[in-house]
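Reply to dn_fold:

You asked what the input looked like. This is it:
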Amino acid sequence: MIDKKWIGHSFPPLTTKVEAGQLGFFAKAVSENNRVYTDESVAKKSGYPALPAPPTFGFSLNLASPNSFGYMKEMGIPLGRVLHGEQKFQYFKPIVAGDEITLQRTIVDILVKKGGKMELISEEVTLMNQNEALVGKMLVTTVVMN
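and this is what came back:
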């Protein structure tokens, strides 16, 4: 069982730079055909200062660290028992190429289900840009099979 002491715990933040190539690659990977995500001139004509991030791009920023699941190991969770359950996104400002985004992960809740055979970890990940503006939040549910 995951120790409930982790509820409310915030892990060290991760800061990563958003690169235009990343955005184009992500847009292609998710079959996003709107040229605003791949053509800087189209993006600027649409009012963006640079290429904007496609929806759900924050998830890939979440994986930017070479040890992106280290927090689970710290919590004593065997990675072989982990499934991605659900993810919700809230957007407040566009993420664009050249931004430096800081992600802050906080454990919101830990629920035991199916008589202890499964646990759900609810996390909130905030995304702040280099101007300390909140650009987004991700609400993540991770399933741990026991």
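The longest strand covers residues 100-113.
Hope that clears it up.
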